[in-house]
Amino acid sequence: MENILLGFANAFKFVNLVAAFLSVAVGIVIGSLPGLSAAMGVALLIPITFGMPAETALIALAGVYCGAMYGGSISAILLHTPGTSSAAATAIDGYQMTLKGQAGKALATATIASFIGGILSSVALYTLSPPLASLALKFGPAEYFWLSIFGLTIIAGVSAKSMLKGLISGALGLVLSTIGMDPMLGIPRFTFGNNGLLQGLPFTATLIGLFSMSQVLLLAEKKIKDLKGSREVKDKVYLSKDEIKRITPVSLWSAIIGIVVGILPGAGGTIASFIGYNEAKRFTKDKEAFGTGIIEGVAGPEAANNAVTGGSLIPTLTLGIPGNSVTAILLGGLVIQGLRPGPDLFTIHGKTTYTFFAGFVIVNILMLILGLFAVRLFAKVSKVSDAVLIPIIFALSVIGSYAISNNMLDVWVMFIFGIVGYFVKKFNLNSAAIVLALILGPIGETGLRRTLIMHKGNYMALFGSTISWVLIGISVLSLMTPVIMSIIEKKKSKAN
Amino acid sequence: MKKVDMLLGFILLAICGFFYFMISRLPEKAILYPIFVTTVLLILTLIHLITTYLKKEDEESNAFKGLEIKQLLFVIATSGLYVVLINIAGYVTSTVLYVLSTLFGLKVSKKASALISIGFSICIYVLFKILLKVPLPKGFII
Amino acid sequence: MKRVVLLLLSLALLLSVVGCAGDSGDQIDTSNYPSKPVEIIVAYKAGGGTDVGARILASEAEKNFGQPLVIINREGSDGELGYTELAQSKPDGYTIGFINLPTFVSLTLERDTKYAIDDVVPILNHVYDAGVLVVQASSEIETLEDFIEYAKANPGDLTISNNGTGASNHIGAAHFEYEAGIEVTHVPFGGSTDMLAALRGGHVDATVAKISEVAALVNSGELRILASFTEERLENFPDVPTMKEKGFDILFGSARALVAPKGTPQEIIDYIHDKFKEAIDSPEHMEKAKNADLPIMYMSPEELAEYIKNEEIYLKEISTFLDLSN
Hints:
The complex is a heterotrimer.
Chain A (H helix, E strand, L loop, with lengths): L1 H10 L2 H19 L5 H12 L4 H26 L8 H12 L3 H35 L3 H18 L4 H15 L2 E2 L6 E2 L13 H18 L20 H23 L5 H15 L11 H25 L5 H12 L13 H30 L6 H20 L2 H19 L4 H24 L11 H30 L1
Antiparallel strand pairs in A: 1-2
Chain B lengths: L1 H23 L7 H23 L14 H21 L1 H15 L4 H23 L10
Chain C lengths: L1 H18 L18 E5 L6 H17 L3 E5 L6 H9 L6 E7 L1 H8 L9 E17 L7 H10 L5 E4 L5 H13 L4 E4 L3 H9 L5 E5 H9 L3 E6 L24 E9 L4 H16 L1 H9 L4 E4 L1 H19 L7
Parallel strand pairs in C: 1-2, 1-3, 5-6, 5-7
Antiparallel strand pairs in C: 3-9, 4-7, 4-8, 4-9, 4-10
Helix pairs in contact in C: 2-9, 2-10
């Protein structure tokens, strides 16, 4: 307790506040630029933090992480181009709201939901770090396999229009995820002799293609209209008390999911936001309204992906197991500062750790303030005519896909998947399902094959642990829910 | 949508066929998982083809009707050329030319096109190269 | 109007040319080196082991280098992308890079890489991370003898996690398996973090890792080192026997070295070497390296060249009797 208070006292030092403020601002900018991910932002900041005291450096890194996670929603809402992959789910309803002239409301929802997610995850950071950390280590190959199956069952939920097309999208993603080196044997698969594809399709470039460049083509196929004023943020960046009441339960539930997903290694913001979206839908009475632009559809994914920030820090700090690519980079920053993950962080380095935790809370408060204020500035982006957006989004997509690993091959992958993504939308397939399958495919494949290697080919090893059974249980639930829901609704309508 | 959906089915069949062909060239111990996922896709595709075939024709909603095909092809072409040009002339020069020519083609006024293309390129250069120190693609010439 | 456009266009062209000036001209002028920032290619992710080491050293060397040192992460294909980029860079001293051994060498033996080993010239070695065989501290296996005994009684039952099929730790584990005449099951993981998590979660029985990755965990009492793959006992763990003492002549570890593209003028190599050597010897660097568990081992250009040569010979030799395909 003493440490916690001391942490807050330290975090309110002028230099730490300045670091928090600037890093959140930089994070929001990076997050809102399509193609620049939170991971990239944190990686760019690492060298700058070398000279700082440990706690200031960590606060700055957390600021960029949280800011970027939130900033992704701004371009997702205004441009239908998620600034970071974890905002892809936000684009579904957020963009529809913009089309309806409710951009301000959507942005306010995203800001408040992100804040709720972030604050709740900082509570988790304080309280759950030690006990929950031991759970993450219990995830062996078999559990990872079921985790990926669970993730794949979400595909059935995210495909609103046609379940079959959702499943086809998922299967297509799985097939594409086999490109690259065989994870167990080291044999190249479908790389066409190109060594750049040995690590699989470059994920970020593929994502920028599917979500950003395809948007360029969708803009280009329509007659360019004189858009003066039509996509302005006409309304205030403001939510009424009633609306805040509407999104609070959704945000709280999604935040809890985000925290859990964040703790699980390998999952991260993108998966959390899709589950968050799905859960928001389950939580709301008017399911038909989803996809047409309602605040719950924005609050769900945004609360979830910002809750991932604190959740993913838990295993990173306590066990040195990063939950996603951002915390993997953060871990590097931690090590440079001489902090080794483990129990020492809470004893010997207690002062630094608790200052960092307090800084995390401050970062989220600053994000709320900056968000509600700065969003006005960002909203100006959406006033721009389609004719201008077309080349600019594409030019940014090129930098985004190039900068991840400084490689022109990635730019070509982005280009090809831009065209693929265009047809995916034309055929009513689901880009989000493809992306989910691309992430989960390798996790599931390696989990399955590692389990088999470890147990001499015995498939029963997949059912060996309680965690496996829990994951199987929630997978079945997740699969059955749409079916059960439709049966219940039919009965209801009959009764009426 | 029926025609479009049938087309989708055939494209997916072609993708499955392509992957089956590629799998046949892999060493035997590495083929199990790729075969499994490709077969899942094949089965789903067949279900899709059959259900689409049995559906009634509905002319009203064709996603490929009423498009500005010329404009779309123009954007794809300039974007492709842009990526090629980056390899030769580097990012900044190529971006100026690409943004300028695309805006021009989309009938934005000359003055605005010139200002936007140059302004945007300078912003990018300052933000990425100078402030964030993100390396921009280099070309053979520059 | 047209004139305005033309004017602006030529201005932009001029700007971009000016921005990239200094790259042009084939003559390498060594007299005023360094006259612009030097890029250091790291072929792995920002925040990874190689990157951390590179950044610690570069931030120290920058103090007296005279120009900024910019780390460029060019990851992909196990490092091949970055190595290729480095090998194909202009040998003007403004692009240098870190390589990991044995990966830099083993990649060329495993696949058709777009770079060759002698496309680079050594500058110096920075880090040498020795290989160790570790188990959980709670494991019934107390010593190397226990390990071998158990493996002999239950062939194939012991599982050893590694950081990827054919990757450095897999080579070490397979070589030990061969020398000890035992049969174990190798379980490949995506990287050293996952490989260690599998051991810590009790999903595998043992791991061959680098000492820097496990030192803290051994000190905290979570893991136990059975043996080190070194010539002499580890300085910080004097109780741990070496493989050599136990009769298995296997030396294995990973080195991280600074190299330049072939053709870089000798004066420039010497300049970089001297500045970086100075940085390595500085107390600030040593302090930071200690905090990050980086075992520093300086090697001169000649020693490094010799080391790379020997590594190639070793890898070629073991590939004749080890099957690393699973």
